[in-house]
Amino acid sequence: MTTQHLSPTARTTPTRGRNRQVDDRSRLMALLSDALVAHLGVVAGTHPVVLPVAFAVDADGPDAGGSLYLHGSVAAGWLGPTLEQDVCVTVTELDGLVLARTGFHHSMNYRSAVVIGRPRQVTDQEERVRALDRLVDHMMPGRAGTLPAATRKELAATAVLALPLAEASMKQRSGGASLEPGDLELTGWAGQVPLRRVADAPVTEDYVSEPVPESVLRRVAELGPA
Amino acid sequence: MTTQHLSPTARTTPTRGRNRQVDDRSRLMALLSDALVAHLGVVAGTHPVVLPVAFAVDADGPDAGGSLYLHGSVAAGWLGPTLEQDVCVTVTELDGLVLARTGFHHSMNYRSAVVIGRPRQVTDQEERVRALDRLVDHMMPGRAGTLPAATRKELAATAVLALPLAEASMKQRSGGASLEPGDLELTGWAGQVPLRRVADAPVTEDYVSEPVPESVLRRVAELGPA
């Protein structure tokens, strides 16, 4: 992956905490690779609605800056509005709790990306299939290639959307508690509590006689508590 | 905690997956207690913006259904718009990956709450202090009582918002892969990979000579990988 600068526009330029802004595209891609859930914001009439969604990324996808793929049932209520407006997709990974000597400087360590854009409904059948494979592989790398091809009925029931990654910004906080000069005169413990996501042992369905695939075991070990 | 039914309105009634809707208020409160980050959606002119935020809950707070508290710098760009419109706060915990025999039935296990409402700026000084204490204790139970009181300057720099929990809905998916009759004729492994958040050992700041407090060690052990 090459390192590129993000090109946030005014609406993806953070109004505060610019020191936490990261303009390194490879870090954005790393965050999008680590995270499993995105939060999609759409305007529904007079108010915003924010929903958790699965996603996948194709850095070389046909959209400006690469493509972020979402999918959903063609019957989903958010689908129609999403195609008629600019939406926001936010991806956040929580990395730790920051406990200062004052309540004011308590914080969290995190990485968060905000992508704003007009989604494109993916209609090309090859791109749809590739995007759906990416959505599976995003959860479990290498798995899509082991599954039967989607049926015509399954494809007809599924909408695939692509959002350009061009208008993206990322913020990140890491490290210890911010320190005011006066804090050194205070007493009390201060520090960080690192947080991470782990996987527990896979639970096999009753009707399955096959062993857990190597790819799944690798992923669990990668995430795992060890 | 008493078990109450949520009262979602049309805009917090899921349009799909009603079988995943949970109308038990104690489960909503449990999710809000487990989660550390919320995603706040506001409309910024012509498009929504979704930002990760810390939050806290007072089930007996002065707002209808209880109060969900947010805070931020008085200089934060999202603050003004947030006070002039209905907003959406979504809280999601990811509980596992669901790997089916078909790509179509791949899914995730999760709990997600959607709260919509008009935020109230908290101006009463006692409620502000209580809310800020709750925000610290949400991260680390019992910690606020061990910290010095916020200074006037800190309080002046901090905006506190309260969102009523009245208009909330919750969705939850748990268990194994959905099964079509045809899937039994397929081969291949299927199952779940449980996911959870863990804490690693606290990292003490250089300038601190005090030992890690019991309350922090308890919380780390509670979350911890053991």
From TrEMBL, chains A, B:
Q: Which UniProt keywords apply?
A: Oxidoreductase
Gene3D superfamilies assigned to the protein according to its UniProt record, in alphabetical order: Electron Transport, Fmn-binding Protein, Chain A
Q: Which SUPFAM superfamilies match?
A: FMN-binding split barrel
Q: What class of enzyme is it?
A: oxidoreductase
- Region labeled Disordered — which residues? 1-22
**Regions of compositional bias (Polar residues) in chain numbering:** 1-16
Q: What is this protein called?
A: Pyridoxamine 5'-phosphate oxidase family protein
What Enzyme Commission number(s) appear in the record? Answer: 1.-.-.-
Task: State the Gene Ontology terms under molecular function.
Answer: oxidoreductase activity
Asked if the keyword Membrane belongs to this entry, the reply reads no
The cross-references to Pfam families, in alphabetical order and at most eight, read: Pyridox_ox_2
